[in-house]
Predict the structure of Reverse transcriptase zinc-binding domain-containing protein.
Amino acid sequence: MSDDAFALWAKRGVVSLSDLYIDGKFASFEQLTQRYNIPRIHFYRYLQLRNFVSSNLDSFPLSPSISLLESIYKHKAINTQAISIIYGLLDSHNYTSLELLKSKWEMDLGGTILEETWCKIIQGIFSSSICAKHAVIQFKIVHRLHWSKVRLSKIKAGLDPTCDRCGLAPASLLHMFWSCSKLYTFWNSIFETFSKVSGKAVEPSPFIALFGVVPIDSAPNRRDINMFAFCSLLARRLILFKWKDANPPTYNHWVREVLYHLKLEKIRYTLRGSTGKFFDIWQPFLSFVEDFEADSVLTSNGLAESSVKVVKGLMKKAHDGKEDFHHSPMIYRSAPLQNSLSPAQILMGRRLRTNLPMHENLLTPKGAHKIKIDKEKDKEKQKTATRQKSKETARIKAWRTSQDQRSCDRHLESAGFSAKRGGTTLL
Ligand SMILES: [Zn+2]
Protein backbone atom coordinates (compact mmCIF):
# COMPACT_ATOMS: atom_id res chain seq x y z
CA MET A 1 0.00 0.00 0.00
CA SER A 2 1.33 3.44 -0.93
CA ASP A 3 -0.33 5.06 2.08
CA ASP A 4 2.23 5.97 4.79
CA ALA A 5 -0.02 4.71 7.60
CA PHE A 6 -0.50 1.29 5.98
CA ALA A 7 3.24 1.17 5.21
CA LEU A 8 3.78 1.47 8.96
CA TRP A 9 1.20 -1.34 9.52
CA ALA A 10 3.15 -3.54 7.11
CA LYS A 11 6.39 -2.81 8.96
CA ARG A 12 4.75 -3.84 12.21
CA GLY A 13 3.47 -7.15 10.81
CA VAL A 14 0.09 -6.53 9.12
CA VAL A 15 1.04 -7.73 5.63
CA SER A 16 -2.06 -9.54 4.38
CA LEU A 17 -5.78 -9.59 5.17
CA SER A 18 -5.33 -12.83 7.14
CA ASP A 19 -3.24 -10.85 9.67
CA LEU A 20 -6.41 -8.90 10.53
CA TYR A 21 -8.06 -12.05 11.85
CA ILE A 22 -7.43 -13.25 15.40
CA ASP A 23 -8.80 -16.67 16.45
CA GLY A 24 -10.75 -16.92 13.17
CA LYS A 25 -12.58 -13.64 13.69
CA PHE A 26 -12.01 -10.12 12.36
CA ALA A 27 -9.98 -8.39 15.11
CA SER A 28 -11.14 -5.29 16.93
CA PHE A 29 -9.01 -2.15 16.79
CA GLU A 30 -8.03 -2.76 20.43
CA GLN A 31 -6.72 -6.23 19.62
CA LEU A 32 -4.71 -4.93 16.65
CA THR A 33 -3.12 -2.12 18.63
CA GLN A 34 -2.13 -4.60 21.31
CA ARG A 35 -0.73 -7.21 18.91
CA TYR A 36 0.97 -5.01 16.32
CA ASN A 37 1.53 -1.81 18.29
CA ILE A 38 -0.45 0.27 15.81
CA PRO A 39 -0.84 3.97 16.71
CA ARG A 40 -4.31 4.84 18.02
CA ILE A 41 -4.56 7.77 15.57
CA HIS A 42 -4.90 5.17 12.75
CA PHE A 43 -8.41 4.25 13.86
CA TYR A 44 -9.93 5.73 10.67
CA ARG A 45 -7.70 3.44 8.57
CA TYR A 46 -9.01 0.48 10.58
CA LEU A 47 -12.60 1.51 9.80
CA GLN A 48 -11.73 1.78 6.10
CA LEU A 49 -10.31 -1.77 6.11
CA ARG A 50 -13.23 -3.21 8.04
CA ASN A 51 -15.69 -1.64 5.63
CA PHE A 52 -13.81 -3.07 2.64
CA VAL A 53 -13.63 -6.58 4.13
CA SER A 54 -17.28 -6.63 5.27
CA SER A 55 -18.53 -5.51 1.86
CA ASN A 56 -16.35 -7.93 -0.15
CA LEU A 57 -16.29 -11.13 1.90
CA ASP A 58 -19.51 -12.97 2.67
CA SER A 59 -17.99 -14.74 5.66
CA PHE A 60 -17.38 -11.46 7.60
CA PRO A 61 -16.68 -11.25 10.55
CA LEU A 62 -15.48 -14.87 10.41
CA SER A 63 -12.27 -15.77 8.59
CA PRO A 64 -12.84 -16.92 4.96
CA SER A 65 -11.67 -20.38 3.94
CA ILE A 66 -8.20 -20.41 2.39
CA SER A 67 -8.19 -20.90 -1.37
CA LEU A 68 -5.77 -23.24 -3.15
CA LEU A 69 -3.81 -20.33 -4.62
CA GLU A 70 -3.54 -18.70 -1.20
CA SER A 71 -2.28 -21.87 0.45
CA ILE A 72 0.38 -22.29 -2.28
CA TYR A 73 1.35 -18.64 -1.97
CA LYS A 74 1.60 -18.84 1.80
CA HIS A 75 3.90 -21.81 1.56
CA LYS A 76 7.31 -20.14 1.61
CA ALA A 77 9.52 -23.18 2.09
CA ILE A 78 12.31 -23.04 -0.47
CA ASN A 79 13.74 -26.49 0.00
CA THR A 80 13.77 -29.87 -1.67
CA GLN A 81 10.26 -30.66 -0.44
CA ALA A 82 8.63 -27.53 -1.87
CA ILE A 83 7.55 -29.18 -5.14
CA SER A 84 6.14 -32.26 -3.44
CA ILE A 85 4.23 -30.09 -0.93
CA ILE A 86 2.75 -27.95 -3.72
CA TYR A 87 1.93 -31.11 -5.70
CA GLY A 88 0.19 -32.51 -2.62
CA LEU A 89 -1.84 -29.31 -2.25
CA LEU A 90 -2.88 -29.43 -5.90
CA ASP A 91 -3.68 -33.13 -5.70
CA SER A 92 -5.81 -32.76 -2.57
CA HIS A 93 -7.73 -29.83 -4.02
CA ASN A 94 -11.42 -30.36 -4.42
CA TYR A 95 -12.19 -30.18 -8.15
CA THR A 96 -15.44 -28.28 -7.86
CA SER A 97 -14.85 -26.68 -11.27
CA LEU A 98 -15.54 -30.01 -13.01
CA GLU A 99 -19.12 -29.86 -11.76
CA LEU A 100 -19.49 -26.50 -13.45
CA LEU A 101 -17.99 -27.98 -16.59
CA LYS A 102 -20.38 -30.90 -16.47
CA SER A 103 -23.37 -28.59 -16.02
CA LYS A 104 -22.28 -26.55 -19.07
CA TRP A 105 -22.15 -29.68 -21.24
CA GLU A 106 -25.52 -30.78 -19.81
CA MET A 107 -26.97 -27.42 -20.79
CA ASP A 108 -25.57 -27.76 -24.32
CA LEU A 109 -26.70 -31.37 -24.76
CA GLY A 110 -30.10 -30.69 -23.23
CA GLY A 111 -30.04 -33.55 -20.71
CA THR A 112 -28.34 -34.97 -17.65
CA ILE A 113 -24.97 -36.68 -17.93
CA LEU A 114 -24.88 -39.67 -15.60
CA GLU A 115 -22.06 -39.66 -13.06
CA GLU A 116 -20.66 -42.92 -14.47
CA THR A 117 -20.63 -41.49 -18.01
CA TRP A 118 -18.95 -38.31 -16.76
CA CYS A 119 -16.20 -40.40 -15.09
CA LYS A 120 -15.69 -42.22 -18.40
CA ILE A 121 -15.43 -38.86 -20.19
CA ILE A 122 -12.71 -37.67 -17.78
CA GLN A 123 -10.82 -40.99 -17.97
CA GLY A 124 -11.14 -40.96 -21.78
CA ILE A 125 -8.94 -37.84 -21.95
CA PHE A 126 -5.89 -39.96 -21.15
CA SER A 127 -6.95 -43.40 -22.37
CA SER A 128 -8.21 -42.66 -25.92
CA SER A 129 -4.71 -42.59 -27.41
CA ILE A 130 -1.14 -43.03 -26.15
CA CYS A 131 -0.10 -39.87 -28.03
CA ALA A 132 0.31 -36.95 -25.59
CA LYS A 133 -0.80 -34.48 -28.27
CA HIS A 134 -4.05 -36.39 -28.74
CA ALA A 135 -4.60 -36.33 -24.97
CA VAL A 136 -4.13 -32.54 -24.98
CA ILE A 137 -6.69 -32.21 -27.79
CA GLN A 138 -9.24 -34.25 -25.84
CA PHE A 139 -8.44 -32.35 -22.63
CA LYS A 140 -9.12 -29.04 -24.37
CA ILE A 141 -12.37 -30.32 -25.86
CA VAL A 142 -13.72 -31.65 -22.53
CA HIS A 143 -12.63 -28.47 -20.72
CA ARG A 144 -14.23 -26.28 -23.42
CA LEU A 145 -11.00 -24.41 -24.10
CA HIS A 146 -11.45 -23.87 -27.83
CA TRP A 147 -12.59 -20.46 -29.00
CA SER A 148 -15.95 -20.71 -30.67
CA LYS A 149 -17.42 -17.71 -32.48
CA VAL A 150 -20.15 -17.52 -29.84
CA ARG A 151 -17.47 -17.10 -27.15
CA LEU A 152 -15.52 -14.58 -29.23
CA SER A 153 -18.64 -12.51 -29.91
CA LYS A 154 -19.11 -12.11 -26.14
CA ILE A 155 -15.63 -10.62 -25.89
CA LYS A 156 -15.59 -8.57 -29.06
CA ALA A 157 -18.68 -6.44 -29.65
CA GLY A 158 -20.00 -6.52 -33.19
CA LEU A 159 -18.52 -9.94 -34.09
CA ASP A 160 -21.06 -12.14 -35.85
CA PRO A 161 -21.38 -15.48 -33.97
CA THR A 162 -22.88 -17.30 -36.98
CA CYS A 163 -21.15 -20.50 -38.13
CA ASP A 164 -18.77 -20.00 -41.08
CA ARG A 165 -19.56 -23.46 -42.43
CA CYS A 166 -23.36 -23.48 -42.65
CA GLY A 167 -24.18 -19.82 -41.94
CA LEU A 168 -27.40 -20.98 -40.26
CA ALA A 169 -26.78 -21.10 -36.51
CA PRO A 170 -24.52 -19.62 -33.82
CA ALA A 171 -21.18 -21.41 -33.77
CA SER A 172 -21.16 -22.80 -30.22
CA LEU A 173 -18.79 -25.63 -29.28
CA LEU A 174 -21.53 -28.25 -29.68
CA HIS A 175 -22.42 -26.84 -33.08
CA MET A 176 -18.80 -26.74 -34.26
CA PHE A 177 -18.08 -30.33 -33.24
CA TRP A 178 -21.40 -32.03 -33.76
CA SER A 179 -24.65 -30.33 -34.73
CA CYS A 180 -23.55 -28.23 -37.73
CA SER A 181 -25.54 -29.31 -40.79
CA LYS A 182 -22.35 -29.34 -42.88
CA LEU A 183 -20.94 -32.06 -40.61
CA TYR A 184 -23.93 -34.34 -41.12
CA THR A 185 -22.42 -36.39 -43.99
CA PHE A 186 -19.05 -36.59 -42.23
CA TRP A 187 -20.42 -37.96 -38.94
CA ASN A 188 -23.04 -40.10 -40.65
CA SER A 189 -20.37 -41.86 -42.73
CA ILE A 190 -18.24 -42.41 -39.63
CA PHE A 191 -21.14 -43.93 -37.66
CA GLU A 192 -22.00 -46.14 -40.65
CA THR A 193 -18.39 -47.35 -40.57
CA PHE A 194 -18.69 -48.05 -36.82
CA SER A 195 -21.86 -50.05 -37.49
CA LYS A 196 -20.28 -52.10 -40.29
CA VAL A 197 -17.07 -52.80 -38.38
CA SER A 198 -18.75 -53.66 -35.07
CA GLY A 199 -21.46 -55.71 -36.78
CA LYS A 200 -24.33 -53.96 -34.98
CA ALA A 201 -26.16 -50.68 -35.47
CA VAL A 202 -24.37 -47.76 -33.81
CA GLU A 203 -26.73 -44.81 -33.61
CA PRO A 204 -25.12 -41.38 -34.14
CA SER A 205 -24.52 -40.00 -30.66
CA PRO A 206 -23.00 -36.71 -29.48
CA PHE A 207 -21.33 -38.63 -26.61
CA ILE A 208 -19.25 -40.68 -29.06
CA ALA A 209 -18.68 -37.70 -31.37
CA LEU A 210 -17.62 -35.28 -28.61
CA PHE A 211 -16.03 -37.51 -25.99
CA GLY A 212 -15.51 -40.92 -27.61
CA VAL A 213 -17.57 -42.63 -24.88
CA VAL A 214 -20.61 -44.77 -25.27
CA PRO A 215 -23.69 -43.86 -23.19
CA ILE A 216 -24.12 -46.12 -20.22
CA ASP A 217 -27.39 -47.71 -21.39
CA SER A 218 -25.79 -49.44 -24.39
CA ALA A 219 -23.31 -52.23 -23.69
CA PRO A 220 -20.64 -52.54 -26.42
CA ASN A 221 -17.63 -54.80 -26.05
CA ARG A 222 -14.11 -53.65 -25.19
CA ARG A 223 -13.02 -53.72 -28.86
CA ASP A 224 -15.77 -51.32 -29.92
CA ILE A 225 -15.14 -48.98 -26.96
CA ASN A 226 -11.46 -48.64 -27.99
CA MET A 227 -12.36 -48.13 -31.64
CA PHE A 228 -14.97 -45.45 -30.92
CA ALA A 229 -12.62 -43.56 -28.59
CA PHE A 230 -9.62 -43.58 -30.94
CA CYS A 231 -11.43 -43.06 -34.26
CA SER A 232 -13.76 -40.33 -32.98
CA LEU A 233 -10.78 -38.48 -31.46
CA LEU A 234 -9.16 -38.37 -34.91
CA ALA A 235 -12.44 -37.07 -36.36
CA ARG A 236 -12.50 -34.25 -33.77
CA ARG A 237 -8.85 -33.52 -34.59
CA LEU A 238 -9.79 -33.10 -38.27
CA ILE A 239 -12.65 -30.76 -37.34
CA LEU A 240 -10.15 -28.66 -35.37
CA PHE A 241 -7.82 -28.56 -38.38
CA LYS A 242 -10.67 -27.06 -40.39
CA TRP A 243 -12.01 -24.92 -37.52
CA LYS A 244 -12.15 -21.69 -39.54
CA ASP A 245 -12.61 -23.33 -42.92
CA ALA A 246 -15.91 -23.01 -44.77
CA ASN A 247 -15.64 -26.67 -45.82
CA PRO A 248 -15.96 -29.55 -43.35
CA PRO A 249 -13.42 -32.41 -43.26
CA THR A 250 -14.12 -35.35 -45.56
CA TYR A 251 -14.75 -38.99 -44.74
CA ASN A 252 -11.86 -40.14 -46.99
CA HIS A 253 -9.51 -37.86 -45.10
CA TRP A 254 -10.68 -39.40 -41.82
CA VAL A 255 -10.05 -42.96 -43.11
CA ARG A 256 -6.52 -41.96 -44.15
CA GLU A 257 -5.91 -40.34 -40.73
CA VAL A 258 -7.07 -43.46 -38.88
CA LEU A 259 -4.82 -45.70 -40.99
CA TYR A 260 -1.88 -43.35 -40.46
CA HIS A 261 -2.32 -43.17 -36.69
CA LEU A 262 -3.05 -46.87 -36.16
CA LYS A 263 0.69 -47.40 -35.77
CA LEU A 264 0.33 -45.58 -32.43
CA GLU A 265 -2.21 -48.16 -31.33
CA LYS A 266 0.14 -50.91 -32.48
CA ILE A 267 2.91 -49.40 -30.32
CA ARG A 268 0.52 -49.33 -27.35
CA TYR A 269 -0.17 -53.08 -27.63
CA THR A 270 3.44 -53.96 -28.49
CA LEU A 271 4.64 -52.22 -25.32
CA ARG A 272 2.19 -54.36 -23.37
CA GLY A 273 3.57 -57.42 -25.17
CA SER A 274 0.26 -58.23 -26.83
CA THR A 275 0.58 -57.44 -30.54
CA GLY A 276 -1.95 -60.18 -31.21
CA LYS A 277 -4.55 -58.20 -29.29
CA PHE A 278 -3.98 -55.25 -31.60
CA PHE A 279 -5.03 -57.37 -34.56
CA ASP A 280 -7.95 -58.82 -32.58
CA ILE A 281 -9.26 -55.28 -32.07
CA TRP A 282 -8.32 -53.60 -35.33
CA GLN A 283 -8.46 -56.38 -37.95
CA PRO A 284 -12.21 -55.82 -38.65
CA PHE A 285 -11.50 -52.13 -39.27
CA LEU A 286 -8.49 -52.92 -41.50
CA SER A 287 -10.55 -55.42 -43.52
CA PHE A 288 -13.30 -52.82 -43.92
CA VAL A 289 -10.77 -50.24 -45.17
CA GLU A 290 -9.33 -52.74 -47.69
CA ASP A 291 -12.82 -53.22 -49.17
CA PHE A 292 -13.36 -49.46 -49.11
CA GLU A 293 -10.11 -48.86 -51.03
CA ALA A 294 -11.05 -51.55 -53.55
CA ASP A 295 -14.34 -49.72 -54.11
CA SER A 296 -12.42 -46.47 -54.61
CA VAL A 297 -10.29 -48.10 -57.32
CA LEU A 298 -13.44 -49.31 -59.06
CA THR A 299 -14.85 -45.79 -58.92
CA SER A 300 -11.64 -44.53 -60.50
CA ASN A 301 -11.93 -47.08 -63.34
CA GLY A 302 -15.49 -45.92 -63.86
CA LEU A 303 -14.14 -42.41 -64.43
CA ALA A 304 -11.76 -43.68 -67.12
CA GLU A 305 -14.61 -45.63 -68.71
CA SER A 306 -16.74 -42.53 -68.84
CA SER A 307 -13.91 -40.57 -70.55
CA VAL A 308 -13.62 -43.31 -73.17
CA LYS A 309 -17.39 -43.14 -73.66
CA VAL A 310 -17.19 -39.37 -74.28
CA VAL A 311 -14.46 -39.77 -76.91
CA LYS A 312 -16.37 -42.60 -78.60
CA GLY A 313 -19.45 -40.34 -78.75
CA LEU A 314 -17.37 -37.56 -80.34
CA MET A 315 -15.98 -39.96 -82.96
CA LYS A 316 -19.43 -41.25 -83.83
CA LYS A 317 -20.85 -37.74 -84.14
CA ALA A 318 -17.96 -36.62 -86.38
CA HIS A 319 -18.40 -39.73 -88.54
CA ASP A 320 -22.17 -39.28 -88.88
CA GLY A 321 -21.83 -35.57 -89.68
CA LYS A 322 -18.93 -36.28 -92.08
CA GLU A 323 -16.81 -33.78 -90.20
CA ASP A 324 -13.13 -33.79 -89.34
CA PHE A 325 -12.77 -35.74 -86.06
CA HIS A 326 -9.76 -33.61 -85.05
CA HIS A 327 -12.08 -30.63 -84.55
CA SER A 328 -14.23 -32.57 -82.06
CA PRO A 329 -11.72 -32.77 -79.15
CA MET A 330 -10.93 -29.08 -79.73
CA ILE A 331 -14.62 -28.14 -79.38
CA TYR A 332 -14.97 -30.44 -76.35
CA ARG A 333 -11.95 -28.85 -74.67
CA SER A 334 -13.20 -25.31 -75.33
CA ALA A 335 -16.80 -25.87 -74.12
CA PRO A 336 -17.36 -24.29 -70.68
CA LEU A 337 -18.04 -26.63 -67.74
CA GLN A 338 -20.39 -26.00 -64.78
CA ASN A 339 -17.83 -23.67 -63.20
CA SER A 340 -17.89 -21.54 -66.43
CA LEU A 341 -14.30 -22.52 -67.27
CA SER A 342 -13.43 -24.78 -70.20
CA PRO A 343 -11.04 -27.77 -69.77
CA ALA A 344 -8.47 -25.83 -71.84
CA GLN A 345 -8.70 -22.86 -69.47
CA ILE A 346 -8.25 -25.14 -66.45
CA LEU A 347 -5.26 -26.87 -68.07
CA MET A 348 -3.47 -23.97 -69.80
CA GLY A 349 -5.00 -20.80 -68.36
CA ARG A 350 -6.25 -19.52 -71.75
CA ARG A 351 -9.06 -20.06 -74.25
CA LEU A 352 -8.58 -21.98 -77.49
CA ARG A 353 -9.14 -20.38 -80.89
CA THR A 354 -12.01 -22.40 -82.35
CA ASN A 355 -14.18 -22.20 -85.46
CA LEU A 356 -16.56 -19.90 -83.54
CA PRO A 357 -15.90 -16.15 -83.81
CA MET A 358 -14.41 -14.75 -80.62
CA HIS A 359 -13.17 -11.35 -79.49
CA GLU A 360 -9.38 -10.99 -79.68
CA ASN A 361 -9.23 -9.83 -76.02
CA LEU A 362 -10.72 -13.14 -74.82
CA LEU A 363 -7.99 -15.03 -76.64
CA THR A 364 -5.23 -13.00 -75.04
CA PRO A 365 -4.17 -14.73 -71.85
CA LYS A 366 -3.68 -12.77 -68.66
CA GLY A 367 -0.13 -11.48 -68.34
CA ALA A 368 0.47 -11.58 -72.11
CA HIS A 369 1.27 -7.85 -72.18
CA LYS A 370 4.00 -8.50 -69.63
CA ILE A 371 5.59 -11.09 -71.93
CA LYS A 372 5.48 -8.58 -74.79
CA ILE A 373 7.19 -5.91 -72.69
CA ASP A 374 9.82 -8.40 -71.51
CA LYS A 375 10.53 -9.47 -75.10
CA GLU A 376 10.92 -5.83 -76.20
CA LYS A 377 13.31 -5.22 -73.32
CA ASP A 378 15.35 -8.28 -74.37
CA LYS A 379 15.51 -6.98 -77.95
CA GLU A 380 16.68 -3.58 -76.77
CA LYS A 381 19.38 -5.18 -74.62
CA GLN A 382 20.54 -7.29 -77.57
CA LYS A 383 20.72 -4.20 -79.82
CA THR A 384 22.81 -2.26 -77.27
CA ALA A 385 25.14 -5.25 -76.86
CA THR A 386 25.58 -5.57 -80.67
CA ARG A 387 26.27 -1.83 -80.99
CA GLN A 388 28.90 -1.96 -78.28
CA LYS A 389 30.45 -5.04 -79.82
CA SER A 390 30.72 -3.44 -83.29
CA LYS A 391 32.33 -0.32 -81.77
CA GLU A 392 34.85 -2.52 -79.97
CA THR A 393 35.60 -4.46 -83.18
CA ALA A 394 36.16 -1.20 -85.12
CA ARG A 395 38.57 0.05 -82.45
CA ILE A 396 40.53 -3.23 -82.50
CA LYS A 397 40.68 -3.15 -86.31
CA ALA A 398 42.02 0.42 -86.26
CA TRP A 399 44.64 -0.53 -83.70
CA ARG A 400 45.74 -3.56 -85.74
CA THR A 401 46.02 -1.47 -88.94
CA SER A 402 48.24 1.03 -87.15
CA GLN A 403 50.37 -1.83 -85.74
CA ASP A 404 50.71 -3.37 -89.24
CA GLN A 405 51.70 0.01 -90.70
CA ARG A 406 54.43 0.47 -88.09
CA SER A 407 55.88 -3.01 -88.61
CA CYS A 408 55.84 -2.43 -92.40
CA ASP A 409 57.72 0.87 -91.96
CA ARG A 410 60.30 -0.79 -89.74
CA HIS A 411 60.73 -3.55 -92.36
CA LEU A 412 61.27 -1.08 -95.21
CA GLU A 413 63.71 0.96 -93.14
CA SER A 414 65.74 -2.17 -92.37
CA ALA A 415 65.73 -2.96 -96.13
CA GLY A 416 67.22 0.50 -96.95
CA PHE A 417 64.06 2.32 -97.93
CA SER A 418 62.72 5.40 -96.34
CA ALA A 419 59.04 5.63 -95.98
CA LYS A 420 56.89 8.68 -95.78
CA ARG A 421 54.02 7.86 -93.57
CA GLY A 422 50.75 9.02 -94.97
CA GLY A 423 52.43 9.94 -98.28
CA THR A 424 52.44 8.25 -101.61
CA THR A 425 56.12 8.17 -102.42
CA LEU A 426 58.36 5.36 -101.29
CA LEU A 427 62.15 5.93 -101.72
ZN1 LIG B 1 -22.67 -24.68 -38.91
